[in-house]
Amino acid sequence: MKLFVLTGCLFLTLALALNPAQAVTFTTIDFPGALLTSANGINSSGQIVGHYNVSGIHGFLLSGGVFTTIDFPGIGVSTWCEGINDNGDIAGWYIAPGNVQLHGFLMQGGVFTTLDFPGAISTSAWAINNAGQVVGEYSTGVGIHGFVYQAGTYTDVTVSGATYTQLRGINNVGDIVGRFATLTGHDHGLLLSNGIQHFLNVPGAIATYANGVNDRKHIVGYQDLTIGNSGFAFFRGNYMVISRAGSNDVKALAIDNNLDIVGEYTDHQSVTHGFLRNP
Fold it and tell me: Which of 15, 59, 148, 196 lies 20 to 30 A from 104 at CA?
């Protein structure tokens, strides 16, 4: 099944939206003993999913301050947990040892279901909403395409004329965010809402990547700059930079309805940490 959509444009204007009177906390998230930690998704209860590196890549759930490792079944399988909904369902992807093929997965009640787009050689799942709609990307060997999965049905979502389309976030209203590239080589953020594609381009950025969206259509992601990456948030018509002192590589990856933002940053020693930003 293929989803055809109309195309429109949404250009972000650069304006600092921080409220000086509003307390903001930036908390580093590190899985104990990990060489790398990334916080990739958050639900309304504050549960966070992500991945870490300790003798391989493993997924995790952080709930109530307690880490739980999540590994797709099998010896030596690398697992990335990317999104979690309010039911505790988790979407992500995995790679079996000795294999370069990516497979998406949906975990519900501790039970894993592999998600492979029909005919694809590679599939990855990145986010899930409360209705069980999963978004992600797949490849048939010719380009990369986005998809929506629900109850056994896959729907292709591809920007017309794009060299690749990647879907990274979905809210409970059905709004979807992601990114795509054109033949000119430029990478753009993408918001798909009510059947219309909006292109997101942060002024001055080499590329714009949209990763998460909440039910009020607040969008987070990151922009590629000449000196690294900087996170961004789009709130109520304003654009806000998300940065971390001492880091020139900050990526905002998800946002909940309380405006809590999770993501990752790399420090001056080239170590990647997860983070939680509370407004």
Answer: 196
CATH of residue 212's domain is 2.120.10.30
Band of pLDDT at residue 5, cut at 50, 70 and 90: very low
Place of tokens 């940490």: 273
Report the distance separating Cα 41 and Cα 256, nearest Å: 9
Measure the CA angle with vertex 273, ends 24 and 253; round to 5°: 65
The answer to whether the beta carbons of residues 147 and 154 sit under 8 Å apart is: yes
* pTM summary value: 0.92
The confidence score (pLDDT) of residue 8 equals: 38
Is the predicted pLDDT of residue 150 greater than 50, yes or no? yes
What value does the mean pLDDT take over residues 172-195?
93
For residue 17, is pLDDT > 60?
no
The Cβ of residue 206 has, within 10 Å, a number of other Cβ atoms equal to 12
Query: In Å, what is the CA distance from 152 to each residue of 46, 100, 117, 127, 240?
Result: 28, 24, 10, 16, 38
Q: Are 84 and 90 in contact (CB under 8 A)?
A: yes
pLDDT at 39 over 60: yes
Compute how many other C-beta atoms are within 10 angstroms of the C-beta atom of residue 69. Answer: 13
The DSSP line for 172-237 is: TT--EEEEEE-TT--EEEEEEETTEEEEE--TT-SEEEEEEE-TT--EEEEEEETTEEEEEEEETT
The reported pLDDT for the residue numbered 102 is: 98
CA 133 to chain centre: 14
Q: Which residue has the higher pLDDT, 96 or 186?
A: 96
Residues 77 and 92: their CA atoms lie apart, in Å, by 13
Q: Which domain holds residue 128?
A: 2-278
Number of domains in the chain: 1
Nearest residue to 235 via CA among 253, 214, 251, 254: 214
